[in-house]
Amino acid sequence: MLARALAAVLAAAALVVVGGSTPASAGGGENCWYETDPTTGEVKLVCEDPGNGGGGDDDPGNGGSSTCSYAGNEIPCTGPEGSVWSSKYKCWIGARGPDDMVPPEGQTKDDGWWHVCYFPPPGSSWEYMWIETGEGGIDPVVLAQRAIASMDLDPIEIGIVPESGANRAGLVGLPVWMWVDGPTEDTFGPITRSASQGSVSVSATASVSSIVWNMGDGAKVTCTGKGTPYADRYGKQPSPTCGHRYAKMSSDQPDGAYQVTATSHWVVEWTGGGQSGTIEFDLTTEPLPIRIGEAQVLTQ
Q1: 32/78 Cα distance (integer angstroms)
Q2: Which residues pair with 16 in a beta bridge?
Q3: What is the number of structural domains in the chain?
Q4: Sign of the C-alpha dihedral computed for residues 85, 86, 89 and 93 taken in this order
Q5: Is residue 298, in this structure, part of any structural domain at all?
Q6: Spatial separation of the C-alpha atoms in residues 8 and 120, rounded to whole Å
Q7: pLDDT digits over 243-274, tens only?
Q8: Are 121 and 10 in contact (CB under 8 A)?
Q9: What is the DSSP letter of 142?
Q10: Are 42 and 32 in contact, with CB atoms under 8 Å apart?
Q11: Residue 286: domain span
Q12: Domain-embedded: residue 299
């Protein structure tokens, strides 16, 4: 289990807990608790990660990070038990309260319902609060991930010289040029999409911030732009933006070729639902074989 602090604010704060146990710890779960840092005296709300967090590097629909603000401090937008931070109520809105609870005077079940509200320390650990209909809805991070999914992003198309092919080969020591071939909004960005549910709408903009080229010979080249497409007029000049040189032939490699891949690092900035955040992930191309030989010197 990975413990992560959800908030750290005033030192040596006195905590007033409403009720005998919080919904986060009721039933023996004990997923969240408050701790005082013995060194700094800061009070922290700590939760155990249940192990169902974000996906891997190649999964843009999960993972990433988002932060909200409270009292001038950055706090996670997601709190205990999957609760969602609300800037309006200044707490993480969690599970719906029991059905036998009585609405406040002048309110009905159609107007809203009681929900658990987890408060950052100092203060109560949690209490029930009346949340108006639509106010305690979907986590904006989920909508951001939906917006990313609708982008249908793909790895780049590799542009490279020497070209790949059975009858194509480069030479040891000569410049290799790499670039994004025919970049589009879904392979390089920027691309903007939005997603909505109820009264909550999120807009997300994704762009490639860098590309890591794995050249197959143990070298990795990081390029921050699209690269420069090669043209015959450049001759044996090195690429001004994204290049490499092979130091030996590829004859000892599987199929006699270096396997080149390009990994795009995507950065998504999103905003909506009173929150904002950043989600990052990688997309990698299929390996492309590049053959490298040596120039033969003829003597008589």
Answers
A1: 13
A2: 124
A3: 2
A4: negative
A5: no
A6: 8
A7: 999 999 999 999 999 999 999 999 999 998 77
A8: yes
A9: H
A10: no
A11: 140-293
A12: no
